[in-house]
Design brief:
alpha+beta
Length: 184
């Protein structure tokens, strides 16, 4: 029974971590190196993550700089950033790329907030699915008479408290990201 609770809690925590990662990829108008994490560069025929080919840093609040470890990959990195769905237009400056971030319009901010809410809802659904699986495993133990009905009720209450805690954490993450996006 404790194993089921621990597994349920671990899986719920992974759902929250996945949400944090997904929210980190959403642009807020400020430059941060994590913005380019999902970009893959065609490097000698293999799709390689950009952060393995170059050093990415924030030059200022609106500009990222990308310094390739291998100078020969500059054009491939520039092409990968340009073709990404981020809408960025990098400019080569000697041996490094400058990636200016255009300011967000009010309409785009609202779209991003909707996207954040959708991601949050997906995380909540994942957490509820984990709760359902945990309760299902508890019911199986009850059917096999490995636990009593009282143990089952207590365990289900514990799983529900976990669910409530993780959903509250998701709500907090969504609210923080929404505030970050709507700040001008």
């Amino acid at each position: 029974m404790d194993g089921i609770k621990k597994d349920t809690e671990t899986r719920m925590a992974k759902s929250v971590e996945t949400l944090k990662t997904d929210l980190g990829k959403i642009r807020t108008g400020r430059a941060h190196p994590g913005l380019l994490d999902q970009i893959r560069v065609d490097y000698y025929g293999a799709k390689t993550p950009l952060n393995q080919l170059a050093n990415i840093s924030a030059a200022d609040a609106r500009t990222l700089t990308v310094t390739p470890y291998d100078k020969g990959t500059l054009q491939a990195i520039e092409k990968a950033i340009r073709e990404s769905d981020l809408g960025l237009n990098p400019a080569a400056s000697g041996t490094l790329l400058r990636v200016p971030l255009p300011p967000l319009t009010e309409e785009r901010r609202r779209e991003l907030v909707k996207h954040v809410h959708k991601e949050g809802e997906n995380a909540k659904v994942a957490i509820r699915n984990v709760r359902r699986d945990g309760n299902h495993h508890l019911k199986e133990l009850l059917k096999k008479k490995l636990i009593t009905e009282d143990d089952d009720k207590r365990a289900e209450e514990a799983v529900q408290k976990m669910t409530d805690r993780f959903i509250a954490e998701v709500d907090k993450l969504i609210a923080a990201k929404e505030h970050e996006i709507m700040q001008v």
